[in-house]
Amino acid sequence: MTAITVRTRKFMTNRLLNRKQMVVDILHPDTPTPKKSEVREALAKQYKSASDHIIVFGFKTQFGGGKTSGFALMYDSVADAKRIEPRFRLVRHGLAEKIEKKSRKQRKELRNRKKKVKGTKKANVGTGKKK
Amino acid sequence: MTVNSVFEEDLPKYGALLNDIEHELEQISEVVKKVDSSIENELSNHKDGIELFGLKNSCMSMYLTDLLNVVGCQLSGVTISGSPLVDRLIEERVVMERIKPLEDKITYKTEKLTKMASGKMAEDDPLNQKPADIDDIDFGSDEGEMEDEERTAKKSTGKYVIPKNRQAFFDEPGTEKAEERSKRKAIRGAMADELMKDTDEPEEINTGELHQSGKMSARLLREEKEKKIFEENYMTRTRVEKRDRHKERDAMKKSELDTLTHFGDYSALTGAKGEPKRKKKKVVGGKSKKKR
């Protein structure tokens, strides 16, 4: 395990959102920027919680390397995190699945085609055009 | 010397000592009773709370009693393991050790006050005094500046009262009031600064990896500091425009030697040609907006 020092600043308990939020400073001399999972584990050990409760984002490494700063949110439970966090962050942490959508252009084209038709025929628009 | 002869010499001494102990025990017990009763009298008045010194005295007497108890047990062969005696001793010891630093802090002040009360020392005698306690200094507040009506209005309802539109007086720099105000401001600023240094994280000084000499550096540093404060307060990262990113990249590429050797354009004084103006090149065939 590489020698990483994790320090937290501006620690605040946010009771309204059931979490503790803080600014995280990581000192990692001679190693590249540590992965988010490593940081989560280090924080979990420091604050005696599960690394599942911890959401970490916004890491920026200073020029020259060695020091990175970012933000961390420590929720009371995974359910709280799933309820409050935006979807993209949950996907990054593996707590939710990415919703696969068609491309924006295709969605707009389909919508415009549907506009030309009235009633139950709208359901057939997509399937009809696939020919 | 044989063992017997030593024994014979010491035996009468031992007897005399035991007699002495018996006689002096009576006197000692009287003194102890006096001290005990005086301690209890002091503590019996709980109206204003238990005072620190009274607590210390009673704790000390209890500790000594328990200590003697332990000695008595050991002399008579009774075990002390598991008895409440040991717990009591530990508790009293801890209490006294906790009291000690508090006592050290207030000792000087109590001594001074008692001396002044008993008349041994004049109040303003500067020779016998240390610098005053920080709590005793009156730094003064800004209450004198608010008008009475405003103050009463604010206090009575608790609502925000819009300040009246009134003349702002100019305090001449020489006058007493202006000097007082400036003094107060200076003290408050320095104090606040010192407190911040103690509580917040250590102050970081930019040594110059991105150092640019001239007027730019102070502004850039200020901007960066503001940005950092904003980002940490709102827990977001600000968007960096392409232009700013390019500027940063160029700043990193620029070597310090250029900035050190650049002394500014003073051609106007010498009448020389001066530096050529940098022309912004027009990008030929750049991206044009798509025609839709």
Automatic annotation (TrEMBL), chain A:
Highest taxon above the source species: Eukaryota
Signal sequence bounds: none
Transmembrane segments: none
Residue segments, region Disordered: 99-131
UniProt keyword annotation of Ribonucleoprotein present: yes
PANTHER family: 40S RIBOSOMAL PROTEIN S24
Protein name (Swiss-Prot/TrEMBL): Small ribosomal subunit protein eS24
Source organism (scientific name): Oikopleura dioica (Tunicate)
TrEMBL record, chain B:
Biased composition annotated in UniProt, kind: Basic residues: 276-292
Residue numbers spanned by region Disordered: 193-217, 240-292
Basic and acidic residues biased stretches: 240-259
GO cellular component: small-subunit processome
Pfam family membership, one: Sas10_Utp3
GO terms for biological process, alphabetical: maturation of SSU-rRNA from tricistronic rRNA transcript (SSU-rRNA, 5.8S rRNA, LSU-rRNA)
Family: Belongs to the SAS10 family.
Protein name: Sas10 C-terminal domain-containing protein
Species in which this protein is naturally found: Oikopleura dioica (Tunicate)
